[in-house]
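[agent] plan:
  1. take the single chain provided in the ticket
  2. run structure prediction with default settings
  3. attach structure tokens to the ticket
  4. add a short note for the reviewer (M.T.)
[agent] executing step 1
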Amino acid sequence: MKKNLFIVFTFICLITNFAFASNIEISKAYKKHQSDVQVHGVGKVIKLLRDDLKGSKHQRFILKLPSKLTILIAHNIDLAKRINNIKVGDSVEFYGEYEWNKKGGVVHWTHHDPRARHIGGWLKHNGRTYQ
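[agent] step 2 finished; step 3 output follows
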């Protein structure tokens, strides 16, 4: 039992450290005004926005990263399931493409690519993966 707890604890620490390291990479990309950067991170929801219904539909919300940087998540709900039960204060892990802007940046491509031309991304919320 102790061995299993140790393994689970170690795994959680590794994932947390990886997500934190990735959040540092997002901060670096922001400072250097870089775009088209594949990123992985985690943040807290600070604002829910209306869906963007122009062109492909996107669920949108703003995350605050541990670095205090805020980013917009634009999740394509034409290609992936929406997160229906998301609320302010929730933690969301993400993998997608970062695009710089002066407000902190946008992460999109948080879904699979049906044409297999782009790296597939995802969102994780309350133990469920959306891709």
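[agent] step 4 note for reviewer: The beta strands are 37-52, 58-64, 70-76, 91-99, 106-108, 122-125, 128-130.
[agent] ticket updated
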